[in-house]
Amino acid sequence: MRTQTAARFSYFAEFYPFYLQEHRNRTCRRLHFIGSSLVLAILAYVLFSQQWLWLLALPVVGYGFAWIGHFVFEKNRPATFRYPLYSFLGDWVMFKEMLTGRLPL
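^ that's the sequence the OP posted. Answer follows.
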């Protein structure tokens, strides 16, 4: 396993390059994309159907796919454990960049 840097980040703009470095493996990024897509689909379903219990699936689906990507393919520890807010924001910025083709899917 690669070790994470001991650096502390004051701003998201400082963190995001580190975040991308932790997502070099294409399969890991794809699993993040699938998990984020499913989160949006479940959220849409919940809002449409008002089946609120499905909200419990959001963190399981979102983090489940991402963590499999990190532990199995990327062979590193998810940034969520050290930088939960920045990591959450990074997930959505990376999702947008993959969706728009700025980052290879």
